[in-house]
TrEMBL record:
It comes from the Bacteria. It is an enzyme of class 3 (hydrolase). Its cofactor is Mg(2+). It comes from Paraglaciecola hydrolytica. Residues 1-129 form the Nudix hydrolase domain. One of its GO terms (molecular function) is 8-oxo-dGDP phosphatase activity. This is 8-oxo-dGTP diphosphatase. It catalyses: 8-oxo-dGTP + H2O = 8-oxo-dGMP + diphosphate + H(+); 8-oxo-GTP + H2O = 8-oxo-GMP + diphosphate + H(+).
């Protein structure tokens, strides 16, 4: 089974993280997510992140910091999430894809339903915040 490489941006402002709800029609639909998307063959992960966050939430990422890499097998799909912390950006994040989105306190992230592959991201953020 082919692994899908995904660039994930954890957009952080003080103790808040920007999250969006996946469209019901998508894989893992109806769950919350950190913005990002599939890496194209000719891109680095950082390039994919910069492109995806501009397309999805209309921000210019200035200095993404590698946070962690997660490989997860959903049964129907395998993903490799290259997760990057985004604290430096220009613009105000807003969904360009008609997704419900909001800023959430790091301490409150566990109250939202995320795909299984994202749970270790939340744990990492809570460790860093404590």
């Amino acid at each position: 089974m082919k692994i899908v490489d995904v660039a994930v941006g954890v957009i952080k402002r003080q103790d808040m993280i920007y999250v969006s709800k996946r469209a019901d029609t998508l894989h893992q639909g109806g769950l919350w997510e950190f913005p990002g998307g599939k890496k194209e063959a000719d891109e680095t992960i950082a390039q994919a992140l910069i492109r995806e966050l501009f397309e999805e939430v209309n921000i210019q990422v200035l200095n993404p910091i590698p946070l962690m890499v997660i490989e997860h097998d959903y049964g129907d799909k395998k993903v490799r999430l290259d997760v990057m912390l985004v604290e430096e950006f220009s613009g105000e994040p807003s969904s360009q894809e008609n997704q419900l989105s909001r800023w959430v306190k790091i301490a409150d992230l566990a109250q939202y339903d995320f795909p299984a592959a994202n749970l270790s991201i939340i744990e990492k953020l809570q460790q860093l915040a404590s």
